[in-house]
């Protein structure tokens, strides 16, 4: 490395923590900036796809997170009324070692945060970032709520999510569109009768979707958990709470009676948290002295399960670009090129497929229910669906030189120096 940079990473989500580890490993001076007094995970469970796992493998953390998660071999969905197959994607179409990993967000956070702590990376807590001001010499100052400033930094990495206050600093800001459907979710013990290696869902048209995702163990717990989720319009949330939990449980059981032992763990509406979604894609995920990673660069519906995985790829691509270019400006251009094709492909796919599974349309789910079963039996289609779900369309691992998607050798156990 020809130059050592001062780098600020705003946000302690997966993208921010991974970026901090990658930059520190490369010898840069890194400061993590977090608005909470103590960093903490936000959100429900998720699937780590081969793409995200490849980044964690590069960090030497894949074995640790794999021990805490649940191997996912299949995504399976049925029409609640008809029992017909609406979704059936098997990772095995990509090879015997292929799979995803269902994880508790707390487990992913703990795995990354423990590595950050072990590396002695500086963390400024209780700092709510409100702006990033380009200064002289190409450096950037972070403005915090209350008037305090941090810096200057050679590079600011924005990992603050879709609602980041720094989005106006992008070279070409993008308009955000709030999606009509979100979801309520809770983590509950996985009950007998559910496949511990499958994401299972039930649908009624596209307006009702209920799902169960095995996510392994929460930090400090022994029981295998599942993320239980239910599609809901954000503007209907207050009405949902007013109806009462019992009425909602009856509705869920009407669609999927087997969920009764999961619902038994829910006795307060506040146990179910509301998640809302936005769609936007920055044409260039960078500005003057600032790079955008994860949801602030590209947010969308979680239907394809790519959010955390795309964020981890962003962090790796950015760190690689900084290592390979002569200065920060050139590195930001390279970062944008490295991620452009893959991000645009999956943003477009998400925008295309989401209305078939979450919308008020009656026609689209009818088309879905008529076309998916026969298409799934066409030779080769199973592989294409698995590639899409695994995040491997566009060959991002080759682009980023991250190695094979499903290596046979054991993952390394610690962050490499």
From TrEMBL:
Transmembrane segments: none
Keyword Ribosomal protein: no
Signal peptide: none
Keywords of this entry: Monooxygenase, Oxidoreductase
Coiled-coil portions: none
InterPro entries per record: FAD-bd, FAD-dep_Monooxygenase_BioMet, FAD/NAD-bd_sf
Span of domain FAD-binding: 5-335
A GO molecular-function descriptor: FAD binding
Record protein name field: 2-polyprenyl-6-methoxyphenol hydroxylase
């Amino acid at each position: 490395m020809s130059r050592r940079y001062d780098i600020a990473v705003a946000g302690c989500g997966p993208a921010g923590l991974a970026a901090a580890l990658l930059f520190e490993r490369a010898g840069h001076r890194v400061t993590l900036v977090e608005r909470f007094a103590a960093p903490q995970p936000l959100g429900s469970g998720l699937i780590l796809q081969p793409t995200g796992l490849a980044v964690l493998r590069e960090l030497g953390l894949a074995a640790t997170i794999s021990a805490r998660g649940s191997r996912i071999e299949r995504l399976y969905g049925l029409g609640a009324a008809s029992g017909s197959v609406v979704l059936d994607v098997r990772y095995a179409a990509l090879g015997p070692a292929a799979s995803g990993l269902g994880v508790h967000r707390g487990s992913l956070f703990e795995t990354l945060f423990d590595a950050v702590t072990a590396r002695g990376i500086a963390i400024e807590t209780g700092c709510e970032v409100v702006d990033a001001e380009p200064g002289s010499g190409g450096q950037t100052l972070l403005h915090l709520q209350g008037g305090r400033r941090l810096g200057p930094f050679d590079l600011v990495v924005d990992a603050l999510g879709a609602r980041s206050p720094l989005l106006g600093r992008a070279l070409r800001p993008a308009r955000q569109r709030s999606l009509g459907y979100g979801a309520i979710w809770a983590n509950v013990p996985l009950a007998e009768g559910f496949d511990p290696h499958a994401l299972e869902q039930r649908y009624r048209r596209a307006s009702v979707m209920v799902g169960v995702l095995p996510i392994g163990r929460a930090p400090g717990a022994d029981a295998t958990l599942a993320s239980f989720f239910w599609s809901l319009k954000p503007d209907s949330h207050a009405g949902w709470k007013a109806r009462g939990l019992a009425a909602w449980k009856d509705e869920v059981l009407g669609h999927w009676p087997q969920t009764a032992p999961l619902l038994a763990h829910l006795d307060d509406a506040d146990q179910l948290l509301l998640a809302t979604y936005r769609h936007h894609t920055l044409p260039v995920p960078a500005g003057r002295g600032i790079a955008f990673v994860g949801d602030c660069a590209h947010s969308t519906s979680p239907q394809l399960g790519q959010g955390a995985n795309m964020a981890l790829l962003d962090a790796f691509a950015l760190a690689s670009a900084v290592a390979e270019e002569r200065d920060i400006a050139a590195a930001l251009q390279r970062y944008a090129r490295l991620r452009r094709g893959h991000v645009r492909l999956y943003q477009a796919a998400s925008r295309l497929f989401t209305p078939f599974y979450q919308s008020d349309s009656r026609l689209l789910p009818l088309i879905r229910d008529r076309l998916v079963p026969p298409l799934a039996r066409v030779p080769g289609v199973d592989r294409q669906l698995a590639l899409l779900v695994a995040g491997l369309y566009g060959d991002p691992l080759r682009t980023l030189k991250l190695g094979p998607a499903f290596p046979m050798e054991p993952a390394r156990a610690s962050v490499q120096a």
